[in-house]
Description:
The structure holds two protein chains of two kinds.
Chain A: H1 2-19, E1 31-34, E2 39-41, E3 50-54, H2 60-67, H3 70-80, E4 84-89, H4 101-111, E5 117-120, H5 125-130, E6 134-135, E7 138-141, E8 147-151, H6 170-179, E9 194-195
Parallel strand pairs in A: 3-4, 4-5
Antiparallel strand pairs in A: 1-2, 1-5, 3-7, 6-9, 7-8
Chain B: H1 3-25, E1 31-37, E2 45-54, E3 59-66, E4 73-77, E5 82-84, E6 93-97, E7 100-106, E8 108-117, E9 127-137, E10 141-151, H2 158-168, E11 179-184, E12 188-194, E13 202-207, E14 220-224, E15 227-233, E16 244-251, E17 255-264
Parallel strand pairs in B: 11-17
Antiparallel strand pairs in B: 1-2, 2-8, 3-7, 4-9, 5-8, 6-7, 9-10, 11-12, 12-15, 13-16, 14-15, 16-17
Amino acid sequence: MKRTRMFLPVLALFSLSAFAVKVGDQAPDFTGTDSHGQTHKLSDYRGKFVVLEWHNNGCPFTKKHYESGNMQHLQKEWTDKGVVWFTVISSSPGSQGYVTADQENEYLQKMHAVPTAAILDPKGDIGHLYGAKTTPHMFVINPQGQLIYNGAIDDKATTDPSDVNGANNYVSDALQEAMSGKAVAVATTRPYGCSVKYAD
Amino acid sequence: MGTRAKMSQLTVVILLYAASALAQSSKPQHAHISLIAAPSNSSASQWIGLRFQLDPGWHIYWTNPGDSGEAPKLTWKLPSGFQAGDLQFPAPHRIADHGMTDYGYEGEAVLLSKLTLSPGATSNKPEIAADVRYLVCREVCIPAKDHVSLKLCDQNAGAAGLLHAAETRLPKSLPHGVHARAVAGVEAFLLSVGPSSRIGQITDFIPSDAQVIDNSAKPQITRSGVTTQVRLKKSEQLDHAVPELRGLLITNDKAYTIVVPVTATKSSQKIPAPKHS
């Protein structure tokens, strides 16, 4: 009897992680290769906050945040404060947003984007592991490796660059609150944007 | 330089101009939009339609776009004395998008607005116009801006049929005597609607609010006795109690707007998935 009871919660946990990661859970570990050929293992960054930003350079929702300079500003602001920022590209070859390493480096330079690294995930492994749905879809992980934010970049689900000003940025809020030892008030939101162009 | 050379230069310029005009008109919009109005019986108010004609496979979005996308936005430019009511959307369809579910329209859609003329105001051959921003998607999404206008004296008879069809597709209130209630469980909401005989076969529920219902989990609909039960899986992003469930109840030929207060169950209580017969 005791054995059966022990078994059930394990099953429940397993079925949860099969869907998507939830705030409060340990963020699943991954190893990814960036556009400079360097590998990054998430668990090597314990002790730091980590932001994951799902990206597609052709998606109008992504373009809103890059052409307005908003995303680059966030990357600069938070990496200056010691946050590790990974841009993750899960578009499959031939689909919108897929880039080679060279193309991504050219893009980063042209856009003055300053993530810690841009991780190329053409098979969608990391995307599926996190249940990344849209571009942008944002995740924030605390220094203990727990997920503390999962959702939209801000509260204006539009493609209009003029909406960036005056929007409530959930990622900055989460980082600010967590860094000052507070609980993250808005920890889960509906991510908005284009669908991630996974290989089917 | 001879006349002939000048002529051929001119020809080149005209050709270039024509080519650029052609290029402009054939830019990949994937949607043709226009304003439509029908001859009106009432001088005080009439329906105006914003008509989208979409290329095959392309879609636009409902007010709640679902897992991705964005609804069209419209800014009226009206002569003084005219007011336009809120844009009203017909019931949308589910659209599959890379494992996600969106709510929108393919093919053709007519959004409606009631145009009213203030008492005492007069306007001779008025022209109404609007700036429209919308997102049109197939594999990829393209944001578009358009300016549309219509001289109300140019209204044509063909528009009457389109406007009438659009009006019949607008969601209605529940028929008199039909009641709905909702209970929140741990993983799902259970919506009960009855008597079933007065509403017809319920085929779907489309939520008005984002982040409440899991868009990709098709509602499980069972008829038991006089009531129909609709089990709606909660969204993974739902982290607060929902005071009321808002959305469209779809039957095989109509759509009803419902706003139903939600009763909470004990947190341990689970709402069972219906058995399939």
